[in-house]
Write a structure and sequence with these properties.
Length: 177
């Protein structure tokens, strides 16, 4: 009898904790300006994302990113490059201070990268591949629903069109529902 009551009490505590965590589910939308630096081209772009914070320490985000073109002049020839990327990132947050309006942010994710390029007047080519991303940054909660963030990400591109890595700097705003 005592074991049954103890088991029921434990199950109630777990159910209560699970239902309390369910209400911390916070969806958001985000928009970021991005500057991408590769081993041969630098491009500006933008990113839109849909995400969810499951609690104050963990979240996930799906994103779509597109850059403009960069023309690189080399040995009298002109090469042009642009990127289009989409994928999934996991976010880890470390709130700081008593008010916890500033958080350190760490990210890890995977991205599908489409590299479009033209080498010295040739026809436009597209290469597609996966990239693995790691990032770090900071986020500041302006209000209960609005936050600004600055992030750096390093992407391993696996020699996609001659690109072996991408360094990405982003600055953006996030609106939570």
């Amino acid at each position: 009898m005592n074991k049954t009551l103890a088991l029921m009490a434990a199950a109630s505590v777990v159910a209560f904790a699970a239902s309390a965590n369910a209400y911390e589910f916070t969806p958001y939308v985000a928009a970021d300006y991005t500057y991408t630096d590769t081993n041969f081209a630098d491009v500006n772009g933008g990113k839109v994302a849909l995400g969810t914070e499951y609690n104050k320490y963990f979240g996930t985000e799906v994103f779509y990113q597109r850059t403009g073109s960069d023309r690189v002049h080399e040995d009298g020839l002109t090469n042009e490059y642009s990127f289009q990327t989409y994928g999934l990132d996991a976010y880890g947050y470390l709130p700081l201070g008593c008010d916890q309006v500033v958080s350190l942010v760490g990210t890890a994710g995977i991205a599908n990268i489409d590299l479009k390029y033209t080498n010295a007047g040739e026809s436009r080519k597209t290469e597609n591949g996966l990239g693995y991303r790691l990032g770090a940054g900071v986020e500041y909660d302006v209000s209960e629903n609005v936050a600004v963030r600055a992030l750096y990400r390093y992407t391993f591109a696996d020699k996609l069109g001659g690109v072996d890595h991408l360094s990405e700097y982003s600055l953006g705003v996030k609106y939570s529902f």
